[in-house]
Structure formats: C-alpha cells, structure tokens
## 1
Amino acid sequence: MAGGRANNSSANANRKKKEVKKETGLGLSAKKDDNFGEWYSEVVISGELIEYYDISGCYILRPWTMSIWEVMQGFFDAEIKKMNIKNCYFPLFVSPGVLQKEKDHIEGFAPEVAWVTKSGQSDLEVPIAIRPTSETVMYPYYSKWIRGHRDLPLKLNQWCNVVRWEFSNPTPFIRSREFLWQEGHTAFSTKEEADKEVLEILELYRCIYEEYLAIPVIKGKKSEHEKFAGGLYTTSVEAFIPNTGRGVQGATSHCLGQNFAKMFEINFENEKGEKAMVWQNSWAYSTRTIGVMVMVHGDDKGLVLPPKVAAVQVIVIPVPYKDADTERILEVCKATAKTLTESGFRAEADFRDNYSPGWKYSHWEMKGVPLRIEIGPKDLANEQVRAVRRDNSAKVDIPMVSLVEQVKDLLANIQQSLFDAAKQKRDACIQVVKTWDEFTEALSHKKLILAPWCNEEEVEKDVKARTKGEIGAAKTLCSPFDQPALDEGTLCFASGKPAKKWTYWGRSY
Amino acid sequence: MAGGRANNSSANANRKKKEVKKETGLGLSAKKDDNFGEWYSEVVISGELIEYYDISGCYILRPWTMSIWEVMQGFFDAEIKKMNIKNCYFPLFVSPGVLQKEKDHIEGFAPEVAWVTKSGQSDLEVPIAIRPTSETVMYPYYSKWIRGHRDLPLKLNQWCNVVRWEFSNPTPFIRSREFLWQEGHTAFSTKEEADKEVLEILELYRCIYEEYLAIPVIKGKKSEHEKFAGGLYTTSVEAFIPNTGRGVQGATSHCLGQNFAKMFEINFENEKGEKAMVWQNSWAYSTRTIGVMVMVHGDDKGLVLPPKVAAVQVIVIPVPYKDADTERILEVCKATAKTLTESGFRAEADFRDNYSPGWKYSHWEMKGVPLRIEIGPKDLANEQVRAVRRDNSAKVDIPMVSLVEQVKDLLANIQQSLFDAAKQKRDACIQVVKTWDEFTEALSHKKLILAPWCNEEEVEKDVKARTKGEIGAAKTLCSPFDQPALDEGTLCFASGKPAKKWTYWGRSY
C-alpha cells in the first residue's frame, strides 16, 4: 500500500534527516502507557484543545475543541428538531426556594452548588444559586404552561453552561466546575411515551459516541444507587478507558417518572376530563464526550481525531527541496486543498515558511489530523500525492486523478479503524466473573467486569465499601440492555443470593 | 389584489361571525400607541417569546425566541467563519485580580458585577466574579499565546451568556440581568487591520438589523463619553423606537487600541525583530436585537415577524364548513404545507380540532407569522388558496399552480415592506436642529435629533444635566459616518462653539 519509494531516494533520506532535526520541542514528555494522567494533561494542552485557567477546575475551550463540539451539536440538534423538540433558554440563576423543592434531587446536588450573594458592593437580599442542572429551574413553568392533554407532549432542550463546584480531582472535559452541555426536558401524558423517548435519545447518544467519536459504548440501565437524584430510572451509554481501567458515564437519558410532577404540580386534564400528572424525562450529554475521545484514541504523538469530528480532516504539506520548483509545489498544494474543500472535505494547506515539513508533520500529528498529504518534487513528477494516516502511520501514494475518491475512502476507513481498534481494546478488558475472588482479581487488573448480581442496593454499597482504596471503589456502571443468558441457579458474585441480572462493574470517572 | 369574494358569499359572512365569536381572550389589552410599555410587556408574553421568571431581570427565552436567535446566529457565525474568526469558550468566572486589571474598564462594569462567594455550605477563599463581558477573562491568555508576528492576527469569538446585575428598569430583551450574545475578541499587528475589521463587523451588524430584522439603523461612532470603557473608539448601529422616541444601541464594534494590550502585556516580536504591542478589537450583539424587532414591527394584534427570521413563515389553516368535504380540505392543507416546506419555506399547518379558524387566525397573528394561508371549500372548487399578509392584512387568492412562486414573492415583499415602513416612520422622526430651543422642542416631541456639535465631552455632560427629567436625559447616540455637509461657521447647538460634526442625540434605552 505504501507505494514504491520507501528506500530508494536520496531525497527521501534528506527529508528524513531534516524532520528529525526540526522536531525538537514538539513531543509529549509523558507516555500514555506509562503515566496516563500526565499524558492526558499534556495532550489536551499540546493538542490545543484546552488552556488551563486561573480558577481551578475551569478550563478554556480553544477553537480546536469548539469545532468538534459544533459537529456533534449540528448532528444532535438536527435530530432532536426532527423529533419536534424545541430549543429554549432558561436563566442561569435559581432561587433557593425552587432549588430545594425536590428533596432527593437537591441532596444530590447541594454540596456542589455555587451561590451568588453580592452584586457590586451590595449584598443580595437572598443568595441566588447557579444552575447545576435545570430541572428545578424549568418545572415551575411546565406547571404553568401545561393545562390540558393538548399541551402535551412538551419537549424542550437547551444548549448552555452549568456549574458544579466539585472539589475532587478536576480533569479537563471529564470533571470541570463549569461545562457545556445540552439538557432536554420533556413531559408526556403517558409513561409509554416517556419510556419510548428515553431510548430514542439514548440511541442518539450512542450515535455520537460510536459513529462520530468512534468510541464503543454499552447501553444500559443504572442501578438504583447510581440513578439520577429524584428520577425514576436512568439509562446511559457507558464508555471505558483501558489505560486506567475506569468506566465513564458517557451520557444519560433519565425517566423522571412523576416525582418532579408531584413536587412542582405539573398536572393536566386528560382526554376523559380527569386530572392527571405528567410523565417526565430529562437527558444530557456534555463536553465530557471530548475528554473520552482524547483518552480512547490519543497516542504518544498526540491527539487522534476521528475524521467525522475533526476541524481539519486533511492537512496538505508542501515538501520543497533546494533544487525543486518550489513555486509549482506550492501551487499544487493549494490546488489539492481547494479540490478537497470543494468536494466537501475539511482540508487545509500549511504554507508557513518558518517551519520545516518535519516540524509540520509533528505539529499536525499532535493536533490529531486524520490524514496528511505531502507533496514534493517526486510527487509532482509522478502526478501523485503521498497520503499518511494519523491512526496507523500507513503511507499510500495517490494518483492525482483519483484524489477525491481515495481520500474519501481513506477517511471512511480511518473512522472505521478507530472504532474497531477501540472496540477490540475495550472488549479485551471485559471480564466475566462469578465469585468475589474473581471480582477483586479482575478489578486489580483494571478490567471492565461483567458479573451476575442480586440487584440489591445494600449489596452494591457493600461492594463499594469493601473495594475502597486509594484509587477509588468499584461500583456498578450499568446493567446492559443486551443481557447474556443467566443460567438458572446463578448466584450474585458479592452476596451469594440468587442473581437477578448481569451488571457491569468497575472503577469510574 | 384581494380577489372577488370579499362581499358576495354567505359562507364568508358565516366565517366572519364565527371568528369574532371565538376570538375572545386572545387580544392584547394595551394599545401600542396608548401605553407602549404595557403593550410591550404583554406582547412578548402573548407572542410566546418570553416568560417572566421568579428572579427579577431574568427571563425565559421560549422556543419562538430561540428560533429567531438561531437564524441570526446561523448567518453571523457563517460570516465570521469566512473571515477566519474561530469560536472558543472561556469560563463564566473571573478572578477579582484579573477583573480589576484595567481601571477604566472595571469602573464601567463594577457596580453590575455578580459575585459568587459560596459553594455548598462553604465560603470561597476569594469571591469570584461572573463575566459581565470577557475582555479581562480572555486577554491574559492572549498575552500567553501571542509571541511573534506569525501568531497574529488572533481572532476569536464566543457565543455565551453574560451577567450584568442592573437595577434600573429591567425590560425583556432590552435590559436583562443575564443575556445571550456573541463576543468577538481580535488582536492585530497594526492599527490599520484593526480599523478595517471594526467596520467589517459593523457591516454584519447592519445586515442583521436591516436585512434580517428589517430595521433601519444608523452606522456611526460613539462619543468619548459613550464609548466602551477602556477602549479607543466605539462604532455602533443605532436603531430608534418611534413610539417612545428613544434610540437603542443595536450592536457595537469597538477598537480597543493598545490600552488592554498595555495592561495585559500582549506583546509580540514584529517582522523587524522589535518588540511591539498588539492592536485589539472587541464586538458584540445580543438578544437585545429581538426586543428591538418587537418594538419596531409589533402592532395591536401582536408580534410581526420579518419572514427571514420567522420560525414559521407560512401558517396553513383549514376552514371547514358543516356541509363541506372536511377531509379533502385537510388533505389539501397538508399537501400545501408539504409543498412549501419542500420548496424551502418554513411552513406549518394548524390542524387542531378544538380551535375555530378564527381563533387560529388571531393566535398566529399574535405570534407574528408573516403569511397565513386559508383553505376552505370555495378555494378547493377554484383550485386556489387565500393568502393573508400579517403586515398589512392584504388578502390575495393564489392559484394552486403558482403557489410556490407567489409565496416566494409575497414573503420577499413583506420583508421589504416591513423595512420600508419602519424606515419611513424612523425618518419622519429625524429632526435637524441648530439651536438649544429647537433641541428641547424636538426632544419634547420624541424626535431623533441631528445637531451640529462641538464634540466636547463637557458639553455632552452639560446637555445631559440640563435635560435630566423623569423620563431620562438626552445624550449622544452616534456621529453618523454619513455626515451631511457642515457649512462653514456652523455653531454647536448647545455650546455655541464652532461645530465639528453632525451628531444624533436623543433619549435612549
């Protein structure tokens, strides 16, 4: 595949030398497999996704991040609009009375709520909370707007920032005090409609992870202990980071049941003229998605972006030589980028004359651009370009005449390969256990553990307590919708009671 | 134009009767010309743009608002991307040290800053401010990112919420404690580049007002007294509300000069290898735009939306009769909406069976939908539809065969008519004055006053002081770029000194 010029050209040897010479200062100092935490902190900075900020737990999202976010936003926003879900914007601020209306809910969020108490030099009469999520912000108005069955379903979404003033280990994207997300809040006449939407939204979240970010996820239901505070049940897509052996809750789609409806008096007159209570859902995904992408695909050269979300899918780099027709090379690079752009790819050429080609290779590898195209004198002579894949470094010479179709195929192939490789690694971490000893053994090997469980909350708490250590306790991630057969007589790995279902366990972010 | 069925059909008479009967409860109680403030508060609620919130000065932006915002956002975001301006996202929170770095700037904003002092039950070590605008949030990082001339220009934008805890007269969209906006922040090597961009962005703001919102604006420069705190000069687009005789600063594009660069040490090595300071701009428009649109176009029946920003451009309403083929009418309505949607219009049909056609007319008039299409038995028989314009109530029968092209023409015509009508009204309010007496007389008649001015800050302050009254003082709105000839010897209307330029004066929001 790599064409026939690998060993036979002195020009190539020169090129190689030059690269090495100029590559200094661009690499990561930590290796992903040796010191994952350090590697992650470095790669989000060097890949220009994030800049650290002078308030702990807050991060600057740079353009390279925002372009990824906007691609996902474009997809998701269009999909929910097809479902007739409308965008709205509710205030950032919540009054304390409303915030505290749902007891379980506020218990879950209270420690993390940031409070505004002053404006200018004056104290406010009452402190005002900043939304950690908007259930309590929105639902008093649902109560006002919903009168009869014809006002249902009411389906709203908002794209906004939320604040959770956490004190444990801030991590860019994964755990930050302010983050961007969408939050959908819907109300229905019947539980059936709510149940159906929960899964429709969850499927969109699966798409974001699997089809855009090329990350395999498990769809399932959270345990009673892990479900959304105040809700009826929570579904999620769960990702896994092999390097740390930790699960990540990728996005959640909650059925809130009628609990909030009761607290906020969201009633309606049904078709029979009787008073009834609505059934509600809420669902969200956040910029956390981007952190998971970095963790799953990144390598020791930097970020690796799936083509579908990359701001730049193809970077064209001129490789001029002393005696070569530099002007012509630049022209062809420009034309190549133009052809690709006009064919619908996100392509750019890097014409900066103060950097060597080798420096540029490293730079764009660090930023994770899926495909690099190099054009030098030999390529001109052969009417070809050289394409180099970011994911596996494979090189291929592409005849100019078939540029567009081969780039298209390559990008599709990269997208699929990233998913396949991630899935293979993830699957290799899954371990089925049936006993407590197998469980602790698997946990010590950073496995994603699938175990038969009695489904009792006390047992989950007990597992948490028994596995508590420096690097965190094990907990349930989800009970997958796709349940393996549970043989009769199977016992819970932890309690020895009859098992009710298979559940994924592990440490998590 | 209205076709031949105005007076000759008993079906029509019935229709009329029915409408009146069911229209109760939908109208506005205040008239725009009688009690503008009341009318405005009512129309933003009844038109379903806004819901009042339990924290004063905060408002819920409902889907009808967000769809308008998203249209403008789509336009502006695409245009700035063409200019190679990249989106980013900086934190909501600012540390006090950074916030206070630029003295003039913080003086301008300090009284309105909201402070977070607590999280959960704990006091924060240092209070943290919520961004009123992001100059001081961003520029420490500009200083870090900008090293050499090749790092310039640096051109970033963000779509976000900001908070200004104002105490004077909160008004939906126009003056709210939290609002949505975009803020662009750019840095250049030279003043020339900065100057050029200021005007390019101002032209985009003109487009938003004139071409999207159908509102005439005046481009010009703010006075020293009214310019952005800490900046070099401010340009703006100024709109005018004839009913209140108040100007509205529509959007601003500031050249910050090198003032912030000095404070935040944003230096670079220029092409000659010398240390130099960047030139900066910042520019913003906000959800205020939507308030101006409501004020300018709305009438006693409700909102009037320009077609280009309306979520629904055409509403199709079935007008069934007792003896008519209702099923066929509904089918044709559905097909009509479908044809229009497929032709790229935002069209919907209202099939609700618990509302009369007349109620629906009023409902969609309240919401400001530009064009209504009614389809009844007679329309079926004649293979036509009846179209009714929101802006001037004109009715026209459109043969089904030319539906798409006539709707296209009608919407274009409505867009233009709204602009023309608004411009005519605005222009009728402009009054040229040359003396103090003429000035106070014009002010009492709610005019938009164009006067020769000596351009001295003390004189402006003096005018403010002398016109201070219950309904607010007069101030400069802008000095229009489009300057009428200033005859030699012309004196300032207020100071009697030689006039330097023509300037617009008035009360303002």
## 2
Amino acid sequence: MAAVLTPQADDFPRWYQDVLAKAELADNGPVRGTMVIRPYGYALWERMQAELDARIKAVGARNVYFPLLIPESYLQREAEHVEGFSPELAVVTHAGGKQLDEPLVIRPTSETIFGEYMAKWVQSYRDLPLLLNQWANVVRWELRPRPFLRTTEFLWQEGHTVHATEADAAAFARTILHDVYADLMTSVLAIPVVPGRKTVHERFAGAVNTMTVEGMMRDGKAVQLGTSHELGQNFARAFDITFLDAESQRQTAWTTSWGAATRMLGGLIMVHGDDAGLRLPPRVAATQAVVMVAKAGEGVVEAASALAAELRAAGVRVEVDDRVDTGFGRRAVDWELKGVPVRIELGPRDLAAGSATVVRRIGGTKTSQPLASVASSVAAAMDEDQAALFAEATKLRDDRIADVASIDESVEASAAGWARIPWAVVGTEGETLLAQSGITVRCL
Amino acid sequence: MAAVLTPQADDFPRWYQDVLAKAELADNGPVRGTMVIRPYGYALWERMQAELDARIKAVGARNVYFPLLIPESYLQREAEHVEGFSPELAVVTHAGGKQLDEPLVIRPTSETIFGEYMAKWVQSYRDLPLLLNQWANVVRWELRPRPFLRTTEFLWQEGHTVHATEADAAAFARTILHDVYADLMTSVLAIPVVPGRKTVHERFAGAVNTMTVEGMMRDGKAVQLGTSHELGQNFARAFDITFLDAESQRQTAWTTSWGAATRMLGGLIMVHGDDAGLRLPPRVAATQAVVMVAKAGEGVVEAASALAAELRAAGVRVEVDDRVDTGFGRRAVDWELKGVPVRIELGPRDLAAGSATVVRRIGGTKTSQPLASVASSVAAAMDEDQAALFAEATKLRDDRIADVASIDESVEASAAGWARIPWAVVGTEGETLLAQSGITVRCL
Ligand SMILES: [Zn+2]
Ligand SMILES: [Zn+2]
C-alpha cells in the first residue's frame, strides 16, 4: 500500500501537515494563521479540557468568564506588558455602525482585565487567596503560524490568582506547574515533560518568574506545553490590588497567572505520532477502540454491536464501524491514521469460529482472540498502551539529551535534540550567542 | 431584617439587577453591554452546558471550533443575512501592527463560515447528514443591553447541519426544538416552555422557518430560550453546498441552524427568583445543599464534614460553610440569596441532641431532623423541589395566559401576561398593529 503520509524522517513539518489533513483534525481558516478544529480534533481537545479542568478545580480555582474586548488603555497600565504584546494585537475600531471613541483590543491574554476586577473583589485578607480560571479564545497576530502550535486565534485556559504574600504566590505557581500541568502531561498525555524556569530573557511580559513544562517532539525539538508565572507585585501595583491585613493595615497583593492551550494538541501529535499517523494515549483518546465489521454476513453487525456494548460496560470508549460499502483496507488505514489504540475486526468467518482479530495500534500486534475474552483484554490493553507510549517517549527524549560543557558543544547537540549544560557556563551572554545559532534556552 | 433586594412587585428590572450583584452572579464589563460572569454564575452556566451538550451529542451532532474572525465578504454572500446583521457588527480593521486589506468581522453567528467549509466536507450523499455544533462567544453590538438577557458579547452553542432533503432538515430542526431545547428547559431548568413558530417578520435573517421555545418570567414577559431555524436552500446556494446523490446527480443541500445562549441564565433567574433572591432547580444548582456550622463548638466542624461526606455519597452536590467568624444570620441570608435548595444548620446544641435543622429554600419549611436521616431526606428533597418549581412556574404561566378573540383584547391581556389569539385574527396586519403597542407575536 502506498504511504498516505510523508515519512517523518523525510520532512517532519510536512508529515505534521499531512496528519492534520488525513486524520481530519484541522483545516486552515480563511484568515491567515487561523484554523478550523474538526470533530475528531475537537473531541481530543474536549478530553484534555475535562482532565485539565478537574485538576484546576482540585487545587481550588473557580471558573469565570471575562469579556473578549479590552479597552486599549488597560494594556498600557503595566509598561512591560503593553510592550510585550503590542505588535501582536488585533484591534476593533468600528462597532454598531460607527467608529468607536476608544479602540478595543481583542484579548491576547487577560491579566489586565482580571486585574481591574480582582482589585474590586479583594478587600480583606479574608478574600485571599482569590483563585480564578477562564476557558477562552485569545488572539495574537502570528507571522509564522502553524496549526495548533502557533495560531492567530487559539483556545486556552488562563488562571489568575491573588495572594497575601510572596511565598503563597510562589507556592501556588509551583502547585500549578507540578500538580496541574506536569501531572496532566505525564499521566494523561503520556508526555515526559521537564518542568523548569525560563531565563529572564524568555519570561512573560510583566512576570518576575516564568516556569514551564516542555516536551520533546519526535524531531528532537522542544514544545512548551504550559506556563506558570509569578507576577510579583507588578500587576497588583498597576491595578491597585490591595487588601486590609488582620491588623487592618493596607497591603499590596501578589499575583500569578498560568495557561495551557490548544498547542497541547500539536504537542500530543508530534510526540507520539509515527509514519502511519497518530498514536493516541488511551486516556486522551476520544475513541479508545473500534469494532470493525470486516464484511457483512449473517449476524455480524449484531455481534459487533453486542461486543461494543460489552466494551462500553467495561469502561472503554468504543465505536462500531459498519460501513461495509467502503473497502476494509481503506477503513483500517483510516483508523490507524486516527490513532485509535485498539481495532477489533469481526467478519463472518471470525464469528463462525467464535473469535475476533484484535489489532493494537501502539504495540503493532495482531492476534485472534475468543469473543468472550475480548472485552477484558481490551480494557487491560488501555493501561499497557498508556504506559508503553510514555516509556517510548521517555527513552526517545533521554537518548536525545546530551550533557555538554560548552556553548560550542551545545550548538552541536541541539542539531539532534536538547543539550543539558550548567547555567553558570551559559549565562545571559551565552544565551545571546546560542540565539545566533537559532537555539533557545528552554528551561533552567 | 431589612430587605436586601428591591421587591419584585416594586420594580422587577431593578430586582433583577440587585440579584445579579448580591448573589455575585455577574458584573458589568468595562465596555458597554459586556459582562463579567463571576464564579457562582459561571458554575450555573457549566451545569447548563453539560446538560445541553449531552443532549446535542445524543442526537448525533459533533462539536467543532471555527475562527472568531470572519472576512467581511462572507457575510455579503447571503443578502438577507448581511442586512439582518450589519448594524450589530464589531469590525477589526488593524492587526499585527498595520491596517488589514480586508476588514474582519467578529462573528455575530457563524452560518457563513460554516457554510464555506461544509461545502468542502460534503461531497456525496454518504457524507449526509452532517451534524455540527460549536460552543463559542459571539458579538452583536447592543443598544439596550441587559446582563445575560441581551449582551454585546455572549456565550452560546450554535448548531449547523446539512441534509439531503427538505424533509430531513425540517425533521432535524424539530428534533432540536423538542428533544434538545424543550427537554432541557422543562426537565433541568424547570421552565414550562411553549415551543412554536415565529412569524415571518420575526424570523432569523435568511431562514425559511424559525422555531422557538419561550418561557414566561415572573413579570409576565416572555423570554426566548432557544431557537431552531430551517434555512431552506438559501445558505446552501450562497455557499455552494451540493452533493452527488445515489444516482450520481448533483443536488443542492438543505441546512439548519440552532442556538441557545447565556440568556438561559437570565431566564432561569427571572422565572424562579423571589424577593429573597434566586431559587435554583436542584438539577441545575451547582451547590444543592450547604451544611452550615451555626456556631463553633466541640466536634461541630467534624460532624458537619461527616454529614457533607454522607450527602456527597448520596449523590448530592454539597458544600460546608464553616465561616463562624461571620455572623450566622448574614450567612443564612446569603445562601438564601444564592438560591441553594437545602440548608442544613448544625450547632453544638443540635449535635448534643443528635439532630440538625433542615431549611428548604423552595418550600420554605424548617424542621429539626435526626442526623442519621438527613442525607436520605435531602436526596429526596431534590426531586420534590425540582417538581415544585416546575409546577409553580406552570401555574403562574397558565394564570397569565388569556384566550382572546381580537387585537384590542390582546393589547389588554399583554399588560399582565400573554394573550393566546387565533393567528387568523391577527395576520401580518395585526402584527403591525400590535407592534405599535409594543407587543410582539412570540410564537405560533
Ligand atoms: Zn519544580
Ligand atoms: Zn412541535
């Protein structure tokens, strides 16, 4: 059979574009840098959202919704912040049939508008910590867009919190990094992330400390999957977020912000996918198993439905594919492209033998199994495959991290993967040198 | 105790504003007509979303995400559509630091951009029906905004579907009206909606038939809670959505669209609230019961937590209120304002007697109960209260619907509620006359 996708080794970015199209994950939008997330891609996003939202709520944050449009003046209150974002902004100048008195910015992130309202809501130390989160779309004009990884509009969650002390804010920002982001990436997305700090140069505009979880894609490049920022008192001062402490003294608060976006979807694809298409960790797969009617025949569709019901009862997210008017081979390739962990093939001959063929996307095995044992073996496969993808990604990453001792060695190592180098050797000057070779210091 | 809210009978719109502020549901946004949905309000929206999303998936639609920004030219392809929306549009003219070649419109709804892509995805009758849904924010510049009911930006779901025949499209639009919207409103929101058709004059721009579910608020006015449109072949022709039928003949498709928004939250408040605040149907309440530590004392907090755990195990969404440094009366009024169906008060004296005081928000009863029976009685109260609110809203509505025979009688009846009149008596001329008295024909 001819390859459906460009092989990864030939052209990794092209392989990525091919997967997006062939697995029906996303299309380019009509405006440059925007995208349309198709049902199969969106179902993955919904699974990620549900898992991430549960973790955000577990650490005590509550969801809210702030307006899309922000008065331009808000962004100017925190000097570094406006400077960091101005070239990326989309601006509404006309609305309701006439020109607006003040232009409105489509949120590139919502620190400023949260700041304005958190200042009203926080009055006393009893109101702290204030832990808020928002699921929303944001717009940042992108010059070099790539679907999911870097798009003009993207979907994300952004958390914004207010604390009484610097220590509380710092501890919470770390909780988000480890218990929320790193836990999601490792236990659900099967991505062995490296959590760490960004250099001063790579910090978020207005932050005093930016932390990140980074994954390694199969081409050896890094992808930033979530960031957690300590904002010190910069935003609290700009927006006058103060509170009366237990001794009735007015104090300036400490804030944090943190976000993870549809970029995670791009990361997921690039960390696990292979030349046959996606490979989905079972915990994030919207469809974990598909029961394929290989060929029509007496009782086959009924048996497939019964098997699917049994799998569903065993907690497996399952679909039945009974499109027998489409060729079997074409459908099998399609499920492989879509990365569904387990395919159960059932035809008249299998049924007569009381068995089914179980094909595993991740291990690549293909075995005939008695119908009665299929449900329990598929349920067990979910855990095995989740662990197998994580182990494979971990090995790939570790094989590609080189411990180096100089800037020159770093440049060499970065051609194939990541370089681990003592920061004392690099420093801010070294960072500038590395930048000249197109290398960024990802994580301290 | 002084009333916290303006009484409904004195000034209903002001009562509504008071509830939004005092129950901490929403604040006005910085841009006129926008709003900030606060944690308590957003938790209600999340419950509605979950229930609505499950129903949408149950009828076979799949979620997608389309871009926020739409090229202005898209809206012009369907003449009635652009005419219907142009005064409401917000327009982006600058982005990425320069003026755009073509202005971009923030979606007021997404028929046009869905149309463009559905035309690509639909090739053959095998691709039909194509049933898509999107959860998104939209912007329509509002001259007379009211939080939740009519805001410049609102959150909603918009469904867009393509069908092979007019009959299929019509049947699907009715399924959405009845099995999705009317079912959600009656069984979850406890709102006895009247489903029906809009007059030609009140139709959605570009639709050939607009259907609606309408609820009656406690001031006798109607609120439109969801709409389902048959778009005929208008959008299919404008966007060239065609398919090859089983005989390989090219056919023009039939489309529908349907939406429900954060307006449902406004409706919920105005249908059930009373002079003491919100009253939430248990099925939509984010917090169904609160265990209040009335006064600190040996073992009281522990007993409250144990009771909450028991309630949680019985499937009740429960919270513990142990803020004993805030006055008991103030906290009780606050839970009443927030409309939490059941309040369980526990103090040292109750604990010594092995009992708790159970206060029901909807029936207004207050009884002392043995601790051992609290969990089961609260679980039972959930069903009773859900039914009680529905019955009360139904009675209120029916008392205020007057059967009338002439336009003059309609005007009179509409001052207090709704008038039911044969359409043959009204007609399009009658509709114009009624409009002069500020009355709209809501539903046929
Ligand atoms: Zn750490
Ligand atoms: Zn009907």
